[in-house]
Amino acid sequence: MKVLVNGDWRDVSSDLLATALQELGYRESVFATAVNGTVVPSSARTEATLREGDRIEVLAPMQGG
Amino acid sequence: MSFYGVELRSRLMLGTARYPSPAILAESVKASGAQVVTVSLRRESGGERAGQGFWSIVSELVRDLGLRVLPNTAGCHSAKEAITTAHMAREVFGTRWIKLEVIGEDDTLQPDVFGLIEAARVLIADGFEVFPYTTEDLVVAGKLLDAGCQVLMPWGSPIGSGRGLNNVFGLKALRAHFPHVPLVIDAGIGVPSHAAQAMELGFDAVLINTSVALARDPVRMATAFGKAVQAGYDGCLAGPMEPRDMAAPSTPIFGKAVFE
Fold this sequence. Notes:
The complex is a heterodimer of chains A (65) and B (260).
Chain A: E1 2-5, E2 8-11, H1 17-23, E3 32-35, E4 38-40, E5 55-63
Parallel strand pairs in A: 1-5
Antiparallel strand pairs in A: 1-2, 3-4, 3-5
Chain B: E1 2-3, E2 6-7, E3 12-15, H1 22-32, E4 36-43, H2 50-65, E5 68-71, H3 79-93, E6 97-100, E7 103-105, E8 110-111, H4 113-125, E9 129-134, H5 138-147, E10 153-154, H6 168-177, E11 184-186, H7 192-200, E12 205-208, H8 210-213, H9 218-238
Parallel strand pairs in B: 3-4, 3-12, 4-5, 6-9, 9-10, 11-12
Antiparallel strand pairs in B: 1-2, 7-8
Helix pairs in contact in B: 1-2, 1-9, 3-4, 4-5, 7-9
């Protein structure tokens, strides 16, 4: 199914956020996620289900002032 | 000085953006003596490692120097956006501290103080310890304190402008109205003398970033800022003299020779 990941449409086969993120290459990294504007903590990713067209934000540490 | 019960020796806080290299960032942090560094969150694609690389450098500094990180909500233009970003930052950085920015105007990056107060209320109810990036407006400051903020971060001038303290009168009034609230000048500091001036006015600390990161020699500039903050702080504690309009000879007149 197609989901919008950080503004880009991507195809994922899994309907679970945790495994979809692995498919997308997010492995052993420090990051935070939100689906459709709602934060999904890492502890909840294995149970968070995805639907066609969901908007996923994946944010990582970055320099800031 | 303490923020939310955390005692700090250094009154200089340093941003981590726009340095020529990670190594110069690390050296600048060390040279500044800062104990708090600001960080942020941005999108990262799978397989990309930029954020992870940055975080490993900061983590090393945190471990070696005992630093605390202060995540920001930079770039957020609404309370909702800032609240969501703050929650994501809490998970990634493992801290309740959040430098709350809600931007209201793009040319000046002036805070949207209405969204700021709204977001501060929500985040404090959610257990955050909020450092609001605000203006020197007394009414807004009062409302942020009513919302539960225990630190305020008024701007000196627009972010990255290097213009120093644009409204000294307003900043003095803020200091005078809230004598016991930790006040940090955030944004607009361009040179060490600006930082010293802020400290001489009685502010508790300054947060700088661009003025160090874009200096020809960032490490040397970080050292200079560390000294300026300490000098300004000592100058404030020492009790500056009152300025006057007329000259007053510093060398005694009494005993001066007469040749005519």
